[in-house]
Amino acid sequence: DDDDDIPQLSSHTLAALQEFYLEQQQKEGMKTSQGFNQYSVGSIEEDWQLSQFWYSDETASCLANEAVVAAGEGGRIACVSAPSVYQKLKEQDRKDFSVYILEYDRRFAVYGEEFIFYDYNHPLNLPENLLPHSFDIVIADPPYLSEECLQKTAETIKYLTKGKILLCTGAIMEEQAAQHLGVKICKFIPKHSRNLANEFRCYVNYASGLD
């Protein structure tokens, strides 16, 4: 039988594949519908090859609200490799603060002038209009759990911030976070939309609402 050489998908694999395609169709349908919100978390899908893992909606909201309070009236907020916090801030549609997103993934360029291409390997390769110490708070989530990535991202954070720092990274980075940024671990436990293998925590260098 000539069909013997044709690989057959198991019924379980086939069902999973059909479910995946159905999800994709539904997402595309959402994007073309009038009610689609370009700032909703997940409107741009995670790219695991870029080590992207979006926060849960609750975590993104909590961190966004913390940033607004910390920045104060008319404050400036920088989201460094933390696009889901940026999206949640924009979703609030408020005029009493401004926010920029510094991100390696150029898909986020859809957000216009607030998008700034950022590569942590070149931590100070930033546009001239991003003046030193011009942000009331910097929220950062370095893409990789390595001291090199944290150290380079820390250079960017220290350049941008007037003082306040909100860092999100693995619990295993606590010592390095304290060393490079002077931040301490918070009681608040951030969650992701997909569970991560590594325990994740938030760190700050000011009296925050995350404790």
Brief summary:
It is found in: Cytoplasm. The chain is α/β, with parallel strands linked by helices.
Structure characterization notes:
The protein is of the alpha/beta class and 211 residues long. It has a single domain, classed as Rossmann fold (3-Layer(aba) Sandwich). The protein is 32% helix and 18% strand. It has five helices and seven strands, in the order ααβαβββαβαββ. It has helices at 11-32, 57-71, 83-91, 147-160, 174-181; strands at residues 75-80, 97-103, 115-117, 135-140, 161-170, 184-185, 200-204. It has a seven-stranded mixed β-sheet, sandwiched between helices. Helix 2 (57-71) packs across helix 3 (83-91) and helix 4 (147-160) packs parallel to helix 5. The longest helix is centred in the first third of the chain and has 22 residues, at 11-32. It is globular, with a radius of gyration of 19 Å. The relative contact order is 0.14. The model is unreliable at 29-36 (pLDDT under 50).
Fold topology:
Layout: H1 11-32, H2 57-71, E1 75-80, H3 83-91, E2 97-103, E3 115-117, E4 135-140, H4 147-160, E5 161-170, H5 174-181, E6 184-185, E7 200-204
Parallel strand pairs: 1-2, 1-4, 2-3, 4-5
Antiparallel strand pairs: 5-7, 6-7
Helix pairs in contact: 2-3, 4-5
Subcellular location: Cytoplasm
Catalytic activity: L-lysyl-[protein] + 3 S-adenosyl-L-methionine = N(6),N(6),N(6)-trimethyl-L-lysyl-[protein] + 3 S-adenosyl-L-homocysteine + 3 H(+)
Keywords: Cytoplasm, Methyltransferase, Transferase
